[in-house]
Automatic annotation (TrEMBL):
Transmembrane segments: 61-82, 94-113, 133-150, 162-188
Residue segments, region Disordered: 206-236
Residue ranges with Polar residues bias: 217-227
Stretches assigned to the DUF2231 domain: 57-194
Composition bias type Basic and acidic residues, residue spans: 206-216
Keyword Transmembrane annotated: yes
Keyword presence, Membrane: yes
Keywords: Membrane, Transmembrane, Transmembrane helix
Name of the molecule in the record: DUF2231 domain-containing protein
Amino acid sequence: MFDLSNNLQFSVHGGADSAGGFAGAVADFLSFIENLLALSPGEMFANVMPGIAGLDNLHPLFVHFPIALLSLFFLLDLLGSIANKIEWRKTASWFLYSGAIFAAMTVAAGLIAADSVAHGGDVHQIMENHEHLGIAVLLLAVTLSGWRLLAKNQISGGANTLYLIFAAILAGLLLFTADLGGLMVYGYGVGVKPVAELNKAAAALHEHGEQTEIHEQNQATESPTSPTEHHHNHMH
């Protein structure tokens, strides 16, 4: 392999050490690229994107997109309606369509993750509610998208008021869905590997403690008669 660090040298005049500053940063970068090229594609991706490579599922990768896109849709559509800005509402349409697509991807990834991510009984109901709200967000986003496409962005009067009410419901559901997702991760550590390892260790210790308690109870039950009791029984 061509050794970039040996064939491309930098000299920094006026400095006591040529390893620092811009030249040092470039040399470190070239060294990183050289080491990267020596890896397999999988190892290369893990070095460049360690966070994504460490994911057990793709749900966390998609979840932020529908939150951002659908929130922007509601705010921009509401302001466009109030200010009578048609261009704002047209832009809001693209946020809605994109948000619906990412919502579908997020829900699909979430349904897969629900069957693969380890979680305790305390968080199961939270996960179920999160799942149902996510599906509701998807259905409402698709419905609003279809309504907008069929109306060719010409929604006005009472229909527009009803449309904005449904958009506000969508934003509210989105907020509660995101809140439950945050609760699972930051409150219960769902999908966080160190927490999962701690839970496994705690379960193992709990099981070991129960086995030890049962063993001690068995020993107490099967223990021989004390010498005093033996002597008393013998005299009788």
